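We emphasize that the prediction below concerns an isolated chain of 125 residues; any contacts that depend on oligomerization or on bound cofactors are therefore not represented. The input was used exactly as deposited, without trimming of termini.
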Amino acid sequence: MVRGKGLLRGLLITGKHLFGKPVTQLYPEQEPILPARFRGPINVDKEKCNACELCVKSCPVQAISLEAEKLDKKKILKKYEVDPSICMHCNLCVESCPKDALENKPEFARATLHKPKVENRIRRH
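Result of the prediction step, given as a token string:
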């Protein structure tokens, strides 16, 4: 039985990581590498949206409100708002959209100094 075998194995592992490529991302200077399925803020394509309100109904915290106008038996989206202060980024609204009008933007740093004012809030209890 050889003494110090575990010590040598530990030193080899440490040596590999010591001289290997660094993993740390320097955040303020470099943009972070976000995964493909990152759930950022919601972006709506107003041209694709048919104002079916499935996204509003599927939101568990009622963070989405929209206004639509009916023209010739067709709804046209006038206003679409997502309250970022209560949105929990569950992605249910994006998955429920039949026209793929909603998508998550790959935006990482969204901190602001002031809370956005959301008017005409629709609450369903």
